[in-house]
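Usage

Read records sequentially. Each one opens with the input sequence:
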Amino acid sequence: QIAGALGTVALAGSSPAMAATAQATKKTADILQTVRDSKRVVGGVFAMGALAGLLGSKLTSSKVTSTRAVSDKITKVYPGAVPNKQLVNQVSGVLQTKYGFGPDSLVATSLCCGEVSRVLEQDFSNVYTDNFSMGGLAGFPFVGTVGFGAMASHIPDGGSCLVVYGPHVGVDSQGVVGTTERRGRVNGGACCGSAIAAYGQ
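and closes with the structure output:
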């Protein structure tokens, strides 16, 4: 099984021959309904990226509005957003209970190359042990179809694969959405400069 979380979920077979597209589409709908039924499992496509951006920020005392104010801003902009570890626990719990995902599962990530994405990636890796990185700028899977096939060949026999993908959206220490402070840099900037640059093309 290949499942994706963080706002979009996809499921396909992990047998030697991949499941037919129609069957995968039906299973995708089933998984999406499960996620919808599991309130607050996924608050939005970019909600976790917002938290990862905040956690990855260098928060200096002279600039920080307040942790509560920033948290309130995240909740307002991304209703249903939850901290990374809570998301990981809820997603892994649903996948274990409903679909039997366990230690024989592989996590494959397609998150932006930016350092703020590593927090969520590591939290999922802590549950599923290994990580197959497919990510690229703005979360697009740079590996393409060949790399996706390679990822599928890394799924343990009889196991499953959780695919987590998406860009990150920062919220800086003053509650400004789309920006973040980075370690060692005086001035903050766009959290996902690649997405901003692509949008401007």
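Summary fields computed downstream for this record:
- The radius of gyration is 17 Å.
- The chain has a mean pLDDT of 73.
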